[in-house]
Amino acid sequence: MSFNTDISSKLESSRNTLRKIARNDNTEFSKQSILNDMEKFVKMVNTMDETVLVPSRLMNLPQEGDDDPFSLFAMLNDLKTELLWAGDVEDHGDRARRVSDLSDTESDASSAAGDSGIEGEDERESAARAAASCRRHLQGLRHSLRQLTAAAAHLTRSYQEEVGAPV
C-alpha cells in the first residue's frame, strides 16, 4: 500500500506543479528546462505581437531565404497557440478549448501500460527505452524552441527597424 500512496502523492504534486505553471504562479525553472524554453518562446512571440502593430507591413521587409516575414509571423503565432492549447482551439480569439474525449486517452494509456509491444520484454527495459526516447525528443524540442525564439526576436527587430521604432 505504501507504494500506491507514494505514487498518489507524487502524482498530486505533479498536478499541483502543472496547475501553477498553467496559472503562471511565478514558478522558476532551471535554465536548461524545457519549461524555461517554452516560457521564453511564448514571451518573445507575445512581444513580437505587441511590437508588430500592422502585420501587413512585414510584407515590405526584405525576404531572407524561403520564408517571407509575414508567413514567419503567422507561423510563430500558430505555433504559440498550438503549444499553449495543444491544437484544441475552436476560436483563436477567445482561446477557448474544446472538451477532449477522455475515454480515448484513457484507453490509449491503459493499452500502453499493459503491452510493451515486444513479447517477453521486461517492463524496466521498455521504460528505460521510452525514457531515452523522451530525453532525445526533449533535447530536440529545446533546440527548436530556441531557434523559434531567436526567429521571433529577429522578426521583431527587423520590424522595428523598418517602421523606425526604437530598438
TrEMBL record:
Q: Where does the protein end up? A: Cytoplasm; Nucleus
- What domain of life? Eukaryota
Which residues lie within the region annotated Disordered?
A: 96-132
- Please provide one cellular component term from the Gene Ontology annotations of this protein: cytosol
Any Pfam family matching the protein: Spot_14
InterPro entries, A to Z: Lipogen_MT_Stabilize_sf (IPR053719), Spot_14 (IPR009786)
Which keywords belong to this entry?
Cytoplasm, Nucleus
The processes (GO biological process) annotated in the record are:
regulation of lipid biosynthetic process
UniProt family annotation? Belongs to the SPOT14 family.
This chain's protein is named: Mid1-interacting protein
- Organism from which the protein derives: Parnassius mnemosyne
